[in-house]
Design goal:
The chain is about 70% helix and about 0% strand. The longest helix has 14 residues, at about 5-20. The chain is built from 4 helices and no strands. The model has no long low-confidence stretch (mean pLDDT about 95). The relative contact order is 0.13.
Length: about 60
């Protein structure tokens, strides 16, 4: 059985919220962070899925 901590769910929430277009300041407010730096530099992560999606956007421009 795989275990996880509740704190890791905060990281997942922040990452997924931003992937779906929720503004960073709103995510910051949801998580109760005092600065946007904490939200963006500690709690959010670039996923392989997001990288592929963004590359497809670039490829479609040419």
């Amino acid at each position: 059985m795989e275990t996880f901590c509740l704190h890791s769910m905060r990281h997942t929430f922040a990452t997924r919220a931003l992937e779906r277009g929720i503004p960073p300041k709103v995510v910051q407010s949801y998580l109760g962070h005092s600065t946007i730096d904490v939200t963006m530099n500690i709690y959010t992560h670039v996923t392989a899925e997001l990288e592929r999606e963004e590359i497809r956007k670039l490829a479609n421009q040419f």
